[in-house]
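Lab notebook, page 48
Experiment: co-folding of the full assembly
Goal: obtain a model of how the components sit together before planning crosslinking
Operator: M.T.
Materials (sequences as entered):
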Amino acid sequence: MLAVHESEDFEQLNVLRSSRRQMIGIEDLSLVFPSADGDVHALSHINLSIKQGDFVSFIGPSGCGKTTLLRVIADLEKQTEGNILVDGTSPEDARLNRLYGYVFQAPALLPWRSIYDNCALPMEISGRSGPHQAEQIDKYLKMVGLQDFHNKYPWQLSGGMQQRASIARALCIEPELLLMDEPFGALDEITRDHMNMELLQIWQQTQKTVVFVTHSIAEAVLLSTHIVVMSPRPGRIAKIIQSPLPRVKTLALRDDERFHALAGEIRDALAQDHAID
Amino acid sequence: MLAVHESEDFEQLNVLRSSRRQMIGIEDLSLVFPSADGDVHALSHINLSIKQGDFVSFIGPSGCGKTTLLRVIADLEKQTEGNILVDGTSPEDARLNRLYGYVFQAPALLPWRSIYDNCALPMEISGRSGPHQAEQIDKYLKMVGLQDFHNKYPWQLSGGMQQRASIARALCIEPELLLMDEPFGALDEITRDHMNMELLQIWQQTQKTVVFVTHSIAEAVLLSTHIVVMSPRPGRIAKIIQSPLPRVKTLALRDDERFHALAGEIRDALAQDHAID
Amino acid sequence: MSSTISTKPWFALLSFIIGIVVIWYLAALLMNGKQLINTLERKKQDWTYTQVASQAYQIPRPMLPAPHQVAAQLNKSVFQVAIDSKRSLIYHTGITLQSTLLGFVLGAILGILIAVGIVHNRTLESSLMPWVIASQTIPILAIAPIIVVVLGALNMTGVFPKAVISMYLSFFPVTIAMVKGLRSSDVMHMELMRTYNATQTQLFWKLRWFSAQPYLFSSLKVAIAAALVGAVVAELPTGAQGGLGSRLLSGSYYGQTEQIWAALLMAALLGSVLVFVVGLAERVILSQRGNANA
Amino acid sequence: MRKSMLNMLAFLVFSLQFLLAFNLTDGSYLQSPSYLFLLVAALISAIRLMTEMTAYVDAKPNAGSGLKAVVPSIFAMMLVMLWQSLVLGFAVSPVLLPSIKSIVISFVNNLPLLWADFQQTYLKAVLAGYVLGCSSGFIVAQLASKSLFLRNGLLPLGNFMSAIPIVGIAPIMVMWFGFDWQSKAAVIVVMTFFPMFINTLAGLQSVDHLHQDLLHTYGASSNQRFVKCQFFYALPFVFNALKLNSTLALIGAIVAEFFGTPIVGMGFRISTEVGRMNMDMVWATILVAALAGSLSYGLLALLEKRLLFWHPSVR
Amino acid sequence: SQPLTLQLKWVTQAQFAGYYVALDKGYYEEAGIDLTIKPGGPDIAPAQVLAGGGADVIVDWLPSALAIREKGLPMVNIAQIYAKSGLMLTCLKSSGIKTPQDFAGHTLGVWFSGNEYPFLSWMSKLGYDTTGGDGVTVLKQGFNVDPLFQGQADCISTMTYNEYGQVLDGGMSDDELVLFKYEDEGVATLEDGLYVLEDALADPAKVELYAKFLKASIKGWEWAAENPQAAGELILEYDDTGAQTEAHQVRMMSEIAKLLGGSPEGIGYLQPEAFERTVSVLLDSEGTPVITQKPEGAYSHLVFDKMNAL
Ligand SMILES: Nc1ncnc2c1ncn2[C@@H]1O[C@H](COP(=O)(O)OP(=O)(O)OP(=O)(O)O)[C@@H](O)[C@H]1O
Ligand SMILES: Nc1ncnc2c1ncn2[C@@H]1O[C@H](COP(=O)(O)OP(=O)(O)OP(=O)(O)O)[C@@H](O)[C@H]1O
Ligand SMILES: Cc1ncc(C[n+]2csc(CCO)c2C)c(N)n1
Ligand SMILES: [Mg+2]
Ligand SMILES: [Mg+2]
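Observation: model returned without errors.
Model output:
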């Protein structure tokens, strides 16, 4: 049944998105971490195509390779086998062209820079720190609710605030492609809801492509156009689900029938070959 | 309306639990962190009574003082004003009597001890490492799904596994009172569900008192007899909600009407005076 | 990663050693050549560059003996004489080693004790710490003779005074690192121990001691090198009673440059071996406790 | 109430013995050992005063540096008292150990001489050698952090070289660079290079993986990586080396002067006056060295605190 | 047998051959003395060891002994082994120095650590400022003769029996050098003598012990002076650093033999005239005289007389 479903999905996708260009194309990609006590097959025979404008979520149990796959896309890790194209080029070229912004699982702010200066860092490095740099930073810090914390240092902020700062930092450069690794893990539900809506809005307005890792089924359902369910040992794609929900979303959707149906489908896919380890 | 609701709550509680002894009694407790740029009012005029056998969850936005309140109960922090009694004594005496087990927000395992030895640590220290120590540890490591990892070191485990080990460590000494600070934050949903059910089972079987901090509304609803909603700046109790759900729970409860109603109530309480910052 | 030859540690080391030897020969040629030219001019003799080049590696008191001269001297004093002979460099290395090891052990113990005191007692911390630092600004060679004389007056002679000077140099890095290490315990772990109501002793043996170990070992590596320097220094004021230090000195009195260099290389070799041994102990002990970085 | 009375008493006993120490007649303790009781009482008093002061200062979270210096000062006065009392009381020969009083007197009387020595040794040799040694260590470490080849070659050699005792290097440097301060600076360069090299390298390599990845995603050049990130990670390590080197450099210069100098300099003074049995002058010079060393250490620590305001060890 | 410790002024070398010969030949043993010889070195101030109780008898030079005595350490010369001074200034002919009057503007290497007193007296007698200016530039010479070879000094201090030989071994010949012996310049001071603490002399038993020690030592010196070759070889046996060469030690011994004798009383007798001459050299220096007043009781013939009475 899974196989049927999968192929169905793919067909659908192809029809739907044929007009948009492919942003990420992954073909039969595998990645093995060599290690003293046996190799770790972090990714095994991954096939995935993401079109420009998609919002794709990766979901799956801890250790199934979500982060690793995102890192391959960002040229932070090299596959052992298979091919990957990012915006038609190699991940390395995409990185050097500063195509994407990456939000790490942890905030990764530089402790010797104020929040403002942390956001300015990517612009400084790409030499884009022109006159409207300040505007840009102001705008996104405000969006994440940190307008009053420009001059604070990261260690003066709570964990959740730090994570929001790091999101603002990635948004500031307005990249074509947003890669986000559990960006909202450290936030409480209300803040999380708020951030979810802000992210949706940016995505809807700018037609960016977003690749998003999450542990939360609800979040995946709420945000994504496509949900990639992964399973571990070896890390592989168990199922790709296209969301039947409209692109324009509100929090009220959470009470929608389709929302619950989709969440149930994901939960079932996850429960399959999940065992506590 | 809130005031009415609160007083109603308190009455209800008193009626319900009159037969059980008070485990934690907090009266008009405040805590201020002095700091160079203005004092931080982490807790302000907290009143709370927790009876033996209760399962109480603290929920609230980041920085509202959940951890701080738990730390006051554990004698890791001293209040600036007000009174607190833990099992009829001061928090310090309770700590000296090894009354409680504490699960930190992070696993806090000692990297130079194997998982088994980490669990043995509290027993070693209290001099209770008798013959059935091994049995006890085996039992709880099995419960959290780590039966095959006795001899591994913490850094050989994934984050979620570490967190589970730290829970097993706190359970091993079977304390009267369990203080848990977002114990399941690092787990994926499936594992989290499993851990929730295990915790519920222990609590139902042993009639322990549990004080539990969480960010997840669903988790709070599923587990608790009482939910304490907190709000920030200054950190205070916004609402105390008694759960109408039965003490014996299953995951199926999540589709129950009352479940959704309760979740909605909590969400509303949270949304009140919540502002992103 | 392709493991080409140039990423191999031995290859880099070998290249460096070869490079150094080449530079050494060139420097010897320049320095000794200049000296040779001076001598010849003073004697009002004619000279040519080829003549200078051919004699530069043979002059009697070279400013810089060539590698092969030092090697010959090393070979002579290590392999060509009985080990227990006073002309054997091994014999002198043994003497220095004795006071180094004794001084190192004393210094490590003293360093740990001071650190434990400082960490557990606020009064000790605020009173002692500045003076521990000040103690190291006192030039040891200046007070070494006084130490030797005073200890001599107290009837302590032989290795002990030398070991005391070694100890003086080696306790410092251990103290500094141990204070840092004993304090480096994770706050969360400290609080965990607090929830268990652990005593100070339990806290020390179950937590602090372990978090201090990595600091301890890296400081022991510094300390054993310092102890060696101390042992060598201490051999100057204890009289020419053997040891690498007195070899250095007597080589210096009698203008035997090769002997100085041989003793120097030997001291450096001894130091490297000692540091290596401590590093080995570190790896064994830290791996026993399952250290991720071991 | 009783506590403050006890503190008063301790203060009195300590002050009394402190004053007495400077007015003892030679050999008092040998003639009447009972005086020793007062000395012991004064020691106990000093310890009590320090304990009380520590508690007092700790209770004040934002105590000024003046208040913080009280306890070490009492400790210093205790040492001074002990030294002075024992030397006078047991009539120790001034050829072995001079009294504190005579050290201070010869310090004051010989200020111009000591200043000249300080200039020669500290302001010329130490500063030049320190700056050269530390900066070259830093630069080479930066190169080595980029090249596995350099690292593989330099690290074992660095260990080897740092095990060479200075007493061996000093005569050679005097032979090569002459008698003046240049040869002392050369000794200091050799002594300070490797601690700085090894520390900086460790610092440059201590960059958090996450931050490394972050800059990688920005496509930062290796210079940008250094300026924006690595440099800050290296700073705490660099300061460790700077502090360690500040004491090493002074010792190195003084020891090197034992092996030949013009007739000025702290090392020259010490070795010459030892030969002349002017131990008070020797200790006066040692005092200068300790002052200079502690002061530069303190200044570096202060600078570190300023620059590393963001580092967990400081904030 | 009674224990006795002798602290030397310098490392084990033929300079101290007499004591080693006496030790080796059992002369001390015969006299009922169990002698320990502590070698010295540049960092060892024998007077300090004496004051600290680390030695009973020390070998020192009279100028530094007198200076230290003025500092308050009551040490007394009980025997003067060397009758003549072996100290000299060795200059390069190429530097243009022919007489002491030519020193001005040149760089002179001098040993400090208590060995500088005769030099300072000499310079002040010649009217040179030693602290720079238009006088001479003084270097604190290290342990060896390298400054001469490396052109860092025009003149260096040498001992006739030791460093001078090294200069020759180093490839310089007599005709490249100009020598100024302190003896010839009239600034000679007494060198190696034996010193003890004053109060020890109040104890007749100690005096007797020292007398026996002196007798055995002198016997050793006489043997050494007659057998320079054997004495040189013997020194090598006792040298713990294993650094000396036979040729150098034998030559040193023959040079030292020239400094020993001379007086009719034999080795060990301190000639009062020689003492006075040293004192006047030291007092002579203007500016910073080494000693400020004529020393009293700085030497004693008590032990020497006792020895003759044994
Ligand atoms: N550098 C590495 N070396 C060896 N194994 C690694 C490395 N990085 C990841 N792994 C392994 O690869 C597998 C996938 O890891 P990854 O971090 O991608 O998981 P994840 O899905 O992101 O999990 P989580 O939800 O916990 O973040 C895991 O089994 C992990 O142990
Ligand atoms: N040691 C401290 N010094 C100063 N302020 C502190 C300290 N610890 C906590 N605070 C402040 O007290 C407030 C409450 O913190 P607390 O950690 O209790 O929040 P929390 O509810 O547990 O948040 P989270 O959900 O992020 O864990 C916060 O504003 C925090 O900044
Ligand atoms: C620092 C120093 N002082 C003196 C000498 C020279 N020296 C060699 S033997 C001797 C006689 C001692 O009785 C003297 C003065 C030196 N080489 N180095
Ligand atoms: Mg991940
Ligand atoms: Mg918290």
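Interpretation: Residues B 66-67, 105, 181 surround magnesium ion (ligand 5) (CB under 6 Å).
Next step: discuss with group before ordering constructs.
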